[in-house]
Write a structure and sequence with these properties.
Elements lengths: L2 H16 L4 E6 L8 H18 L9 H18 L5 E9 L4 E10 L8 E7 L14 H18 L8 E6 L13 H10 L9 E8 L24 E6 L3 H14 L4 E6 L11 H6 L4 E5 L21 H20 L13 E4 L7
Parallel strand pairs: 4-5, 4-6, 6-9, 7-8
Antiparallel strand pairs: 1-8, 1-10, 2-3, 3-5, 7-9
Length: 358
């Protein structure tokens, strides 16, 4: 996205926010710290996975063989994890105009309570092919989300939880399928809502992992100031009004970890830009869902460009994010508080700014 368009997008979003009931909560700003040995190992593992995914190059409808290869790679990792009670499922669907078959890949960690609502964690594995002219490696968008998905699943699949956890790698998040019936997460969420399983499938929470690897401590590296911090060193938690309890709880867990700054943006789902990932599909089915993101175009100048490569990413900080996500999903699967504290001494409140999808 061009510099002038980002400025215009920010100004328009601020005006919309003023009348939309949209808020940003800057929850906490812990001091930077050195990565622990376990975080360093996690960072190395995720870097390896991101490097492997970008080797598939263009992962989208323009290069269906690459998309299939990426899906098979992810399915293989899921099957390596699925020892004992977890199982792997693929959801295939065809799109007539392209003549291609697309796949969502799902690892299901079955809970001990069959009546409990379930938790979904998802990330899309396709990369943009239209804006970049087919030259986008898709490291941050969204190999980082897939790498995080794999790491969280690796840990939580070895534990028992009352709630079932569904880890899903979605296809077709990018254009031209974005926010259409052929969007992979839309197909998946629609199937959940209309499932014929006994009692139907009830979703307690959905977490969308969308671009988690780009960070900068430089002043001015984050667009949206003063409504967002001026340094792009935080993780954003984005939710609609119906998902606000989940969004606040998620941000609080980042604060409690004292690892990485977190801001939560809550608005009505119709506000332009707030639904730009797979969480939107779950909102469409009235499921609570949030997106975790490094804010994409508001920070990473290589969004949907050929320079979106692993070498520009901060895997140490990404490991800190994934550590918190793992504990958060585990807590959702074990016990989720019905209400959040009314006050937080670490919170500032501002009208929120939303990115514009170019």
């Amino acid at each position: 996205m061009r510099h002038d368009r980002i400025v215009l997008a920010t100004a328009l979003a601020l005006g919309a926010a003023a009348v939309s009931g949209c808020f940003t909560y800057t929850r906490c700003t812990p001091s930077p710290r050195v990565a622990t040995p376990s975080e360093q190992r996690l960072a190395a593992s995720m870097e390896q996975r991101v490097q492997r995914l970008v080797q598939f190059e263009q992962r989208n409808f323009l290069q269906p063989k690459n998309l299939v290869a990426a899906a098979e790679y992810i399915e293989g990792l899921f099957r390596d994890i699925a020892v004992g009670h977890p199982f792997v499922r693929t959801q295939s669907f065809s799109i007539t105009p392209t003549g291609n078959t697309y796949r969502n890949i799902e690892l299901v960690v079955v809970g001990t309570d069959p009546d409990a609502d379930e938790v979904v964690v998802g990330a899309h594995y396709d990369s943009d092919g239209l804006e970049s002219g087919g030259m986008n490696p898709g490291a941050d968008d969204n190999a980082t989300g897939v790498a995080a998905l794999i790491e969280v699943a690796t840990v939580l699949a070895q534990r028992q939880h009352p709630r079932t956890i569904r880890f899903v790698a979605f296809t077709n998040e990018e254009e031209p399928f974005f926010k259409t019936h052929e969007m992979g997460s839309r197909v998946y969420a629609r199937e959940l809502r209309h499932s014929q399983e006994p009692g139907n499938i009830k979703i307690h929470a959905m977490i969308s992992l969308e671009m988690l690897g780009y960070f900068s401590d430089a002043t001015g590296s984050q667009w949206g100031w003063p409504l967002l911090p001026s340094q792009g060193n935080f993780i954003a938690v984005v939710g609609n009004w119906q998902s606000r309890a989940l969004a606040f709880r998620t941000a609080d867990m980042f604060c409690e970890s004292e690892t990485i700054p977190a801001s939560v943006m809550v608005s009505f789902g119709w506000l332009y830009g707030i639904g730009w990932s797979d969480h939107w599909s779950f909102w469409h089915e009235d499921y609570p869902a949030v997106m975790l993101t490094d804010t994409a175009t508001l920070r990473n100048v290589c969004y949907h460009r050929g320079c979106d490569v692993p070498e520009r990413l901060d895997f140490d900080r990404m490991a800190q994010v994934v550590g918190v996500v793992t504990e958060m999903v585990g807590s959702l699967a074990d016990e989720y508080p019905k209400a959040l504290p009314r006050r937080s001494s670490r919170r500032s409140v501002f009208p929120c700014v939303t990115p514009i999808r170019d």
